[in-house]
Amino acid sequence: MRAKNILLLLFFFGFGMTLNSQRPKIIENIEKNCNVKIKENKAVENIIKQYLEQDKSERFGYRVQVFSSNKQRLAKDKSAEIEAKIRLKYPNIGIYRMFVSPFWKVRVGNFGSREVAQDFMEELVRNFPDLRKGTYVVRETRLKNKNNALR
Prior knowledge:
It is a single chain. This protein has helices at about 1-35, 40-55, 70-90, 115-125; strands spanning about 60-70, 95-100, 105-110, 135-145. A four-stranded antiparallel beta sheet has the order 2-3-1-4. The protein has two domains: about 1-55, no CATH class; about 60-145, 2-Layer Sandwich (Alpha-Beta Plaits), CATH 3.30.70. About 50% of the residues lie in helices and about 25% in strands. By secondary structure, the chain is of the alpha+beta class.
């Protein structure tokens, strides 16, 4: 019984080796003699173009951070108040109120350069002197260039 098992094992092992030695020849033959044409639907092509264009619309930039606090309940309400106040004065500029644990933050604008963000920060401080203490320019890793175009 044991001899049969050993013979069977040797047979399958030898058969497997034969297939493995033929496989590279088959692959070589396919690579040399075959042409592959990919036909894709126009809808797939359009989706790929949209994705690539969307990726181009995102880039590095700057925002003005006007508020940051980790005092949970107080910070949430204060950030909403600051956001509303700035939105009244600057309705066409992006205002971003976010919670990045444990901080509530309010950031304003989508600026292409630090200098433009700095100029806007000075204007903000002139219009809202009470925000002077916590206002500074921050670099954002990605800004979307859609409704709120980069300046």
